[in-house]
């Protein structure tokens, strides 16, 4: 598996993964009917850096990061990850997480924050804890889960200066 | 004091208040050098509803609200407030806060969340607590305070269905 910068040529595959991920309505705020244009703006918007994890010619997942706030809050990065359902369970999320922490550190960020981790997404939460994140906030009933109704979302955080 | 929808004709006064508020670098992420264009986009951006508090012809402050997240998170509002330094201490923030809660409830939101309340902004925190908000998250050293260096920011929240 290789992780490299995403380019426009990757977008078709990224759009497929995005659609598959948001279809279940259980991990991301995006509606299953989110437009291709919105998806593109999300992954290739201004001041956003996107990467893809690839195996041969196949894109297994993607992540992006950017400043979580502007100006006086711009030392904290925000990041977002999607793994192709076809590539679950082989460490793509973990590899992208580690890569993202390194890239954000290199870019000069001092911390990373996830603003909206759905509380029922236990796999993701376990992974982020393993990678050094902790829950610093609980947003009550902030996510409308497609099957479970309103569930909490977490804010997760870690500093980047401790290796 | 009257609180009414903001219009383009109010922008000159809003821009003056904005500049005065961000000049101190102690409450908002905006740099003191934020452009007029960015300020305009902030108060009159897409899907944003803005209000001004006025006394006669003088604008005392402004607030805005919008969905904090799209789609599956769009039932929670986010709001933002600025009071003219010349109008501090006469209840403008409180009046706008109460007005905002009412407007957001009317618009169908079920909760309101502030994503980034600077922890040293004790006046604002006391006001929000008085208006029923509680701290649901602490973002460590997330704000670069102009005088104090890195300080925490809070996520504050309240539901809107309890009157």
Give your account of this protein's structure.
The structure is a homodimer of 163-residue chains. The first copy, chain A, is α+β, with helices and mostly antiparallel strands and 163 residues long. Helices cover 28% and strands 37% of the residues of chain A. The first copy, chain A, has four helices and seven strands, in the order βααβββαβαββ. Chain A has a seven-stranded mixed sheet with strand order 1-2-3-4-5-7-6. In chain A, a hairpin with an 8-residue loop joins strand 3 (58-67) and strand 4. The first copy, chain A, is globular. The A-B interface holds A 25, 28-31, 34, 68-76, 110-111, 113, 115-116, 136-146, 150, 153, 155, 157, 159 and B 25, 28-31, 34, 68-76, 110-111, 113, 115-116, 136-146, 150, 153, 155, 157, 159.
Brief rundown of the structure:
Chain A is built from 4 helices and 7 strands.
List keywords for this structure.
homodimer; 163 residues; alpha+beta; seven-stranded mixed beta sheet; 7 strands
Number of helices of chain A: 4
Task: Give the quaternary arrangement of the chains.
Answer: homodimer
Helix content of chain A: 25-40%
- Beta-strand content bin of chain A: 35-45%
Q: N-to-C SSE series of chain A?
A: EHHEEEHEHEE
Largest sheet of chain A: 7 strands, mixed
Q: Catalogue the unreliable spans of chain A.
A: none
Which geometry of chain A do the CA atoms define? globular
- What is the alpha-carbon Rg of chain A in Å? 15 Å
Distance between the termini of chain A: 23 Å
Mean pLDDT figure of chain A? 97
Judged by helices, strands and strand pairing, the structural class of chain A is: alpha+beta
Q: Order of strands across the biggest sheet of chain A?
A: 1-2-3-4-5-7-6
The beta-strand count of chain A equals 7
| Largest protein interface, residues of each chain | A-B, 36 and 36 residues
